[in-house]
Amino acid sequence: METNLSTALIPLEITWGDKRINLDRAAKAIASLPAGTDLAVLPETFSTGFPVGMSREEVAALAEPNDGPTMRFISELAASCNLAIAGSFIAREGESLRNRAFFAEPSGDITFADKRHLFTMAGEHNIFDAGQERLQVRFRGWNIAMAVCYDMRFPVWLRNQRNAYDLLIAVANWPEVRVGAWEALIPARAIENEAYVCAVDCRGTDPKDFVYNGSSQACDFKGKNVGKSDESGIIIATLDKEALTRFRTKFPAWQDADDFRLL
Predict the structure, then answer these.
(1) Structure confidence at residue 259 as a pLDDT band (50, 70, 90)
(2) Tell me, what's the pLDDT at 231?
(3) Is residue 228 among the annotated active site residues?
(4) Residue 73 maps to which CATH number?
(5) Which of 7, 137, 147, 232 fits a disulfide with 151 by CB distance 3.0 to 4.6 angstroms?
């Protein structure tokens, strides 16, 4: 029997630039999850907020290495709660700054990959260096990939060739003014890739007064929303691996997909 994956989507309220408050909120949310939760998903740049209107020097002051306080905190939280935690943070690698996705397992293993598509309309490309590899990891019998915010607009980057992943995690700081696109892209990526998509936005107001409403979804391979929100706004979804396998066998559109490679 294939294993289901109990997933919690946490549309965290972010206080921009205040790591202490944001880490505390994340810890309380994750500690409140039902026993047996396998995976908790936090928004993009969950500990700081997306650096809207900030200079490179200001962003650099928020950046940390992979083994810095934020990721040590996440690793300890994953171990103590016996679940995986996914999200992104502002990372520093030498002189380079990155919007870095992470998948932290309770074993202590952490997989990283950097946001591929930088949001030029907000000047993100002037601050961060783009990633070249998609995050891919296997956890509790599931093949999992990750996208960061603007990446969701680019289906070629996320194309699920030969069922390389069963679940796509998308983390975002997607403002309310454009949230209709986000809400349409989530089921679209699920349908075209015959995979589950768990997508998490944040809540709050950034320094430019853009509002984020926490719009988040867990969609199955048909684009159906399968999550249920609790009193706190956390969305709980049980992802059914057997149902996914049956559908891919019954309706194997993936076999007719175009093969390609990125240059």
Answers:
(1) confident
(2) 87
(3) no
(4) 3.60.110.10
(5) 147
